[in-house]
Amino acid sequence: DEVETAWGLIDPILSTWDSDRATPLAVYAPNSWGPAEADSLLTRDGRRWLSE
What we know:
Blueprint (H helix, E strand, L loop, with lengths): L1 H17 L17 H8 L9
């Protein structure tokens, strides 16, 4: 039962990763402040990083 439940949770995730609907990962240079998408997550809600 547990194995079937686990696959019921994981299978939709794997299917999305294999489909064209999957969002590509944001990449960024090591030792940087991260991808621009991280800033977008904050600014769309009117927030900002504490270091600013």
